[in-house]
Amino acid sequence: MLGGISDVLLISHGPIGCAYYAGISGCEGPGLGVGANAKEGADATAASVEVPAFAARTFVTCMDESDIVFGGEEKLANAIDEAVARYHPEAIAVCATCPVGIIGDDIEQVARDAAIRHGIDVLALSCEGFKREPGWLIGGRRIFEEWVGRETRPRGPYPIHYMSESARFGNGVASSLLEQVGYDVVCSLMGATTYEDIRASQDARLIVLDSGKAIDAVPQMYGERYGTGFMRVSFTGLGNIARSLRAMARSFGSEELDLKTEQVISASMERIAPALERARERYARRIAVIFEDIFRSDAFATMALELGMDVIMIAPDYAAQHYTDQGFCMNVPVALAGRIACSGFPSGERRASLPGCEHALRPVSARDADWVRATFSSREVTDALSILNPDICFAGVEQRFGRIRTPMRSEKFLSDERGTDYGGFEGFMSFARDLAIASELGHWLDTEPSWLTEGRQDG
Q1: What residues form DSSP beta bridges with 329?
Q2: Which of 39, 50, 177, 355 is the most buried if burial means most Cβ atoms within 10 Å?
Q3: pLDDT by residue (tens digit) across 426-459?
Q4: What spatial distance separates the first Cα and last Cα of the chain, rounded to whole Å?
């Protein structure tokens, strides 16, 4: 929630080890993020923004044993003073870690005193890991209560608040697409935004949330206080992009916006049409297996479907709250289900689409779109994949399957990449390019896995 605010310095109050995750999800900093050397795909506005020197760094008070015994409030106060002296941030946020909550440091008072000394906002967040509420909700609520609504700015006719972690790392693909349609993106909480943008974010008439995370509570706060509209969107996958843009236009009730939306969609599809046709010829009827993780891999399934691939999705039973060898849901295209039906695998129910992929823009030449959904054990999943022999596997965050005694091309496409690398129309073509690199490099043929070599030697 806080990591992408480029001009707010974030301090973790606690031991050094507790600060690890504070540095892996924020702004990438000068030369890497939304600075002069922003990565390809960032819009011109983002590229012209100067990122503070502290944007890529992790700050921690580094509490030790004596601080745990005698308290770390003085160390926190000194850390805030040093941060202001060195970096002159627009504001500071202090995140309490578990030891701080246990020993009872009064970070609220320390923050109030520091705000008076330096004349800037210092936000104290009691987001210890053992709290019943998740840290993103605590942070989102405090930001909303303390910063939102402090000022207002002149806006265009269609002001929106684009909430998405995919807007980080100098990625301006979605924002650029929205601006082409005619939207005024006033803020991008969770993504690359600023302290001043947040203070005026109540000016948005609509919040669009492009994220697989269940953080609806924050947009709902805007709706309750300011009457801001709210909808979930996805700018990953051609069908998702078109559906999202059209739904946004309908919410404003403007014929001009409807017309501009259709023009942008048509022009974008026409621009990528030749490359899309070549990609679909390459991937038609290839088999892709997607091991669905808890953060949802439906974006990758959607893009694979739109390339004409036969997609198999496998996921553990999340309702069980823990991994077991039973209860893996396997979605197999009807056209492929016959291969494993005669091998004693469980029968399942027929479904018209994959979960989360209802709006995929599949090619006309694609095979029957129905899937069979059944519950498999871990061993049955392994045996079924050996029979189906997929062309490529998309690995999730965690897998609990045994070894499949067949070389299978595999790539670990992370959930966060779906928006940062593969968002928008051009991002979809980047996915097709990366998929070609992953599946067709010669090392798949030249390098044999050690277990296969050892098996030949043993037998």
Answers
A1: 315, 375
A2: 177
A3: 889 998 998 888 777 665 556 665 655 655 555 5
A4: 55
Q: How many domains does the chain have?
A: 3
99 and 174 assigned to the same domain:
no
Highest mean pLDDT among 313-317, 386-390, 398-402, 441-445: 386-390
Instruction: Give the separation between CA 78 and CA 69, rounded to whole angstroms.
Output: 18
Quote the tokens at residue 241.
């992009």
Q: Which domain holds residue 61?
A: 8-131
Report the pLDDT value the prediction gives residue 254, as an integer from 0 to 100. Answer: 93
Q: Which two tokens stand for residue 365?
A: 């030449």
pTM of the model: 0.83
Question: Do 422 and 295 share a domain, yes or no?
Answer: yes
The strand pairing partners of 187, in sequence order, are 161
Average of per-residue pLDDT across 83-95: 95
Closest of 123, 195, 136, 191 to residue 161, by C-alpha: 191
Same domain for 422 and 300, yes or no, is yes
Q: Is residue 268 part of a domain?
A: no
* CATH number of the domain enclosing 83: 3.40.50.1980
311 with 403, same domain: the answer is yes
Alpha-carbon gap, residue 66 to 79, rounded angstroms: 17
Last residue of a domain, one of 113, 131, 149: 131
Mean pLDDT of the chain: 80
Rg (CA), the chain: 25
442: left (phi over 0), alpha (psi -120 to 50) or beta: alpha
Tokens of 267: 């022009």
What's the CA gap between 99 and 84, in Å, rounded?
25
Least confident of 19-33, 145-159, 290-304, 369-383: 19-33
Task: Tell me the two tokens of residue 306.
Answer: 């739109």
Q: Of 235, 263, 291, which one is at a domain's C-terminal end?
A: 263
Whether 316 and 436 share a structural domain: yes
CA–CA distance, 236 with 427 (Å, rounded to integer): 8
Cα 185-84-191 angle, rounded to 5 deg:
25
Q: How many other β-carbons are positioned within 10 Å of the β-carbon of residue 445? A: 9
57 occurs within a structural domain: yes
Q: Same structural domain for residues 384 and 310?
A: yes
